[in-house]
Amino acid sequence: MAEIDGYFRSGTGLTCLACRLVFADAIIQKQHYTSDWHRYNLKRHVANLAPISETTFLEKSLQVAQDCEKFKSSHKEIFCSHCHKKFQSSKALENHFNSKKHKENILKSDNNVIEEQKSMEYEVSPHKNIEEDKNLQKKMMILMKIMEFQLAIVYFVLHP
User: Fold this and answer.
1) How far is 39 from 45, CA to CA, in rounded Å?
2) Cα dist. 139→75, 77, 107, 121 in Å?
3) Which of 9, 35, 51, 137 is the most buried (most CB within 10 A)?
4) Strand ranges (DSSP E) for 21-132?
5) Do 123 and 136 form a contact (C-beta atoms < 8 A)?
6) Which residues form the C2H2-type domain (predicted)?
7) pLDDT category of residue 75 using cuts at 50, 70 and 90
8) Would the pLDDT of 35 be above 90?
9) Are residues 47 and 91 in the same domain?
10) How confident is the model over 120-151, as pLDDT tens digits?
11) Which residues does 69 contact at the CB level (< 8 Å), separation at least 6?
């Protein structure tokens, strides 16, 4: 009934009925109770199933982790940043790009960029402080990157 290992010794009275183990001391028993393997066997015990060995549990855990990785790598999130919508397939995204609503959102965002540019033009003035010049430079770089990104999307929409 008990596994006998460096950590396990019969006759101590410290047991885990769900995993069918006997422990050498209370510290090892407490560590075991916090393990995923014990939780798994506890659920099996409640369902009147026999416990599995730690090796079998680790093999199953590894297989589940690998399956999850395969699923994640095969199911990339498809997202339209202008409309803030998620799609299940690239075909659905392509159809969305051709929709009237998407094109309106692109035009709105382009108008917002133009408005930001105009407001920044009014901000430009001779600065007495070098730090102000650096902050303005950072703002301009961010704005340029946003515009480049939006132009790339507009090009993609107009030239599928």
Assistant:
1) 10
2) 36, 30, 22, 12
3) 51
4) 21-23, 78-80, 85-87
5) yes
6) 80-102
7) low
8) yes
9) no
10) 544 444 445 555 666 777 777 777 777 776 66
11) none
Whether residue 145 is found in the same domain as residue 84: yes
Block residue for tokens 């090892």: 28
Task: Check pLDDT > 90 for residue 111.
Answer: no
Token pair, residue 124, equals 């430009």
Amino acid at residue number 32: H
Side chain identity, residue 142: I
Domain that holds residue 143: 79-158
Full-model pTM: 0.43
Residue with tokens 């050498």: 24
Alpha-carbon distance 72 to 122, whole Å?
Answer: 47
3-state secondary structure at position 122: helix
Which pLDDT score, from 0 to 100, does residue 70 have? 76
Q: Is 4 domain-assigned? A: no
- Confidence at 19, pLDDT banded by 50, 70, 90: very high
- Domain assignment present for residue 153? The answer is yes
